[in-house]
Amino acid sequence: MTSTKNIKALTANSVKWNIFDRVGTQVLYGVTGIILARILSVEDFALVGAILVFQAFASLIIDSGFMPALLQRKSPTSLDYSSVLWFNILVAIAIYIILYFAAPLIASWYGDDMRLIPMSRVLFLSFIVNATALVPANRFNKQLSLKPVALANTAGLITGAAVGIWCAVAGYGAWALVWQTLTLGSIKSVYLWCAGHWRPMLRISWQSLRSFFAIGGSMLFTSFLNTLFQNIYSFIIGNRSGMIPLGCYTQADKWSKMGIMSLVQVFQSSFMPALSDAQNQSERFSAIARRLNRFTAYVTFPSMIILSAMALPLFHALFGPKWDDAVPLFQLLLIRGIFYLVTTSYNNYIVARGCARLIVKVEIVRDITALVALVATIPLLNLEIPQIPFAGLQIMLAGQIIASIVAWIYTLILSSSVSGATPRDFITDAVPSLVSSLMAVVPAVILLDTSLSPWIVFPLQALSSGTLYLILNAISRSAIQREVLTIALSRFSSR
What we know:
19 helices; mainly alpha
């Protein structure tokens, strides 16, 4: 009984610090990003964005799927942790050496921009720094002790922000982002090692590593595909269109992902326990899936649609007019994000039913459709149309929206086959929220024609459209809104 109570206490405490970590990270990352976007140029962000493409793949290879495998293992030994730690560091060093000598090739890919050579060689040191923090963070997660991880992330973000902003004000340009990244990783790693009492053995067990790779290999494959299609656009844009379009795309992609990924985390953490609990009860599972589908639509549609209408005054207020060309890219990415979020919720139904192999099929279909759309639109990437900034790039993103729709339809069919609900059920459940969102966005669109300050316009847009959305759902007697408001009010009153 005591152990059960301890587990419950640890779980509750981990949830608290996990929320603190996620919210704090988003806030600190967002505030720092806003300040740096106002100080630095579009080209500065493009230079670092070009290098981060390689960093994303390197980080994936360094992890090698070992981190989730360590969490999955019931009782990993000190030798297990030590083996993974030294392997991660050795791989990080090897990758750094390769990319150090490949730096001129990276520069040539991006139009022979020689500034990328020294910049990439310094930024790639973060591979090694970050590799040292993976196992210590994993150990805390395994112990459900997330406080040190949250505080390490916070300390790293604050210190990195201070260094980055100082460098930007001092005129270091893109190097401000480089030093910010290195500082963040270094502070995080030092904090985790100081907070933990574990010290690694000077040994590597290849048998242990093979067992971890057997578990994490499939995860690595899926992660590789995800990373590839998340970063391939920057790789191609920088090569074919130049730094300015890449800089605008980098900013649009970063800020659209912040909102989208936050919603994904909410959906996954909230949905999976209820779905897993009902996985062997077909009727109950179907009812829960439909209920959660309505909730997804209720949150996703207004968030993405209203935010899209707010994009121009929001960017003007936060980043300044120099980022105007990024606005239509941001809007297109938000539209694509709608289908990504809905597809992600469908994936939860599939996983909860124990049909994980279907997820691989979903990922393959999603990647193939995205690749077809990419190949079809690359020849149009440099198309110029008067009054339409980066017209070719917008066409490319429109192609990705079409690909997302195809992937959504395929996932809808698969999730219906395992959830017990028909595709028509899912669509019918989502339509009321879509209609209400399209009607609610009207005040936000009207306010775009005013001459008011953007600092006044976008809060008015959010308030008027958000209020209208609630009213429309109240008029239509939305059951999901009543549930959401009841839960929110009960928690508020309990406090």
